[in-house]
Description:
CATH topology of the largest domain: Uridine Diphospho-n-acetylenolpyruvylglucosamine Reductase, domain 3
Structural class: alpha+beta
Number of domains: 2
Radius of gyration: 20 Å
Helix content: 25-40%
Strand order of the largest sheet: 4-5-8-6-7
Number of strands: 14
Oligomer: single chain
Strand content: 15-25%
Amino acid sequence: xxxxxxxxxxxxxxxxxxxxxxxxxxxxxxxxxxxxxxxxxxxxxxxxxxxxxxxxxxxxxxxxxxxxxxxxxxxxxxxxxxxxxxxxxxxxxxxxxxxxxxxxxxxxxxxxxxxxxxxxxxxxxxxxxxxxxxxxxxxxxxxxxxxxxxxxxxxxxxxxxxxxxxxxxxxxxxxxxxxxxxxxxxxxxxxxxxxxxxxxxxxxxxxxxxxxxxxxxxxxxxxxxxxxxxxxxxxxxxxxxxxxxxxxxxxxxxxxxxxxxxxxxxxxxxxxxxxxxxxxxxxxxxxxxxxxxxxxxxxxxxxxxxxxxxxxxxxxxxxxxxxxxxxxxxxxxxxxxx
Length: 338
């Protein structure tokens, strides 16, 4: 498969990059590592006439801060840089661990944290070459009018398959977006739409510049990923767990719990890989908040995650089994935090 023809720009500043896309309009698209966009262009899923590289913009290639004050991560830092950065490994080990599960070392050397957070939704009927999709009369997400996952639905059910998105939602990260109209901050929780086509609350002319991680003030988080192979594959289920203790503290940048586990002040369980947007399980959080961190509460949270999980038949594995695994992987994520 070959790339279609396009015009390529390499701006030197954020202001120059957003001006180019503002002038060109919706037929332009930003690219960093290109590990998602270029394969999509080869499959004729995305066809920008102008591609604007943001890989070398200085503002997008730095990490500042630490666990005490919070960290700002430039969106064009590679996944390998995220995995290996000393501050991220020490103060935000869940981010480094989740990034390390993405794809292969070679692709992590190319792919960026921003690219993973903006990852196109995926589906067995969509992620095929042009000829295959044409043979089934295409699908609702691209060129067709039927969602082959749920033919009676007017909604596209392509799945949000990023490993970092559930983590960012769980820990309360914020994203900085810039355009010619100015800049804005948006919570990760509010950034994703439950629609396989319109899956981001981001205008086409906006550039994701940075990811703001909150101070590591008494909280812990973990991430568990289900996939067929131990490397390379996208998640067909991801579980991010977050807890904050009532009397927790921070030592050497890491959250610590009081003796005996302490009472849980706040909690989040976020499921990825089963819907067009990350699924935050409120009932699982309610099973934990205000209680001691023990086996009974962990089991109750896992049961709530199982009830909420409703995967469809549009990725790997049998979807009923993936639903069962929501319970098991929530157990793993929470037990890891003990």
